[in-house]
Specification:
Blueprint (H helix, E strand, L loop, with lengths): L2 H10 L3 H6 L1 E4 L1 H7 L16 E4 H13 L4 H16 L4 H10 L1 H13 L6 H9 L5 H11 L15 H7 L4 H12 L5 H10 L2
Antiparallel strand pairs: 1-2
């Protein structure tokens, strides 16, 4: 672990509450009006121009997916929440809406999410979703939320961000996970390291 990584993690000193409470601003109405009709279900976005969503709230949608037996409607609601968090107010909103409007992409993604019931290990979960054509942040983000909240010592997926990858000098998701684990040690969950490096500039 580099001194820079250690210094950032120590300075941010992330707690589980910090991670779960991490909030992102987004536009619910932008997602609601741009949601693809062919999916035949719109996630429960309000008609507000601006709102915020936390990681903890996205984890709740992911829990609904697992508790429903990976039901299609719950997966679609989860995708709305996860993409809203991951895209925020960036131009990626339009990119992700375009991705979902492609019926082939959407079908592959719904199928890949269901395969996570049998997939073991964070790298395999990430690869299953990356294979649909999703960018690393989105493939890793979906895998991260569907794996549930983290504790120290858990071997679970984490969100891939350019900021964290650059800070750790990681190329590829496997190295990203390994370096996050090194930085986490026995005291922190992996996502606390990602959070600190993504937020700690």
């Amino acid at each position: 672990m580099t001194n820079q990584v250690a210094e950032t993690v120590n300075r941010v000193a992330p707690t589980a509450e910090d991670v779960l409470g991490d909030a992102v601003a987004f536009s619910p109405i932008r997602w609601k009006t741009g949601w693809p009709h062919h999916l035949r279900r719109v996630p429960p976005f309000r008609d507000d121009a601006r709102a915020s969503i936390t990681r903890g709230e996205v984890f709740e949608f992911a829990a609904d997916v697992r508790e429903s037996g990976w039901n299609r409607d719950q997966i679609i609601d989860f995708l709305g929440a996860a993409f809203a968090y991951l895209a925020g107010q960036s131009n990626e909103v339009m990119q992700m809406q375009a991705f979902l409007r492609n019926k082939g992409n959407a079908a592959k993604l719904l199928g890949a999410i269901r395969t996570l019931q049998e997939v073991t290990g964070p790298e395999a979960a990430y690869e299953a979703l990356a294979g649909t054509g999703l960018a690393p942040k989105y493939a890793s983000g979906l895998a991260y939320f569907l794996a549930g909240p983290q504790q120290a010592g858990d071997a679970k997926p984490i969100i891939y961000t350019e900021a964290a990858a650059s800070a750790m000098g990681a190329s590829g998701y496997a190295e990203y996970l390994a370096k996050a684990a090194e930085a986490a040690g026995d005291a922190l969950p992996l996502d606390a390291v990602e959070y600190a490096l993504s937020k700690g500039d």
